[in-house]
Write a structure and sequence with these properties.
Layout lengths: L21 H13 L7 H7 L6 H13 L3 E4 L2 E4 L5 H8 L5
Antiparallel strand pairs: 1-2
Helix pairs in contact: 1-3
């Protein structure tokens, strides 16, 4: 999958019908993070997700993750690259969850 200047969702002739909710974004993030060792094609991601996600919604989520630096698009597919900074991990380990 290659990105062009128009990228994934900024196509002039298409209107975005729906935006993903937070639960869906978190579900996709968690799935990609668990499968970070190998690049995955879009079809593999759709098949592996615990719930069905509309194609357009998934593409919007993937663009968000790409823009935020959490995934990359390569010739072999989409791969999770983000790792939490160590100081945040250490801070969250000693915290109390409410």
């Amino acid at each position: 999958m290659k990105l062009t200047k128009t990228e994934l969702i900024e196509k002039k002739d298409r209107k975005i019908l729906r935006y993903p909710n937070l639960n869906t974004v978190l579900m996709v993030e968690e799935f990609l993070e668990k499968h970070r060792d190998m690049p995955m094609q879009l079809a593999e991601i759709k098949e592996g997700l615990p719930r069905q996600v509309m194609h357009q919604t998934l593409k919007i989520i993937l663009e968000y993750l790409w823009r935020s630096g959490k995934i990359i698009y390569g010739p072999r597919g989409i791969q999770w690259i983000y790792s939490r900074p160590e100081h945040l991990k250490n801070m969250l380990e000693g915290s109390l969850e409410v």
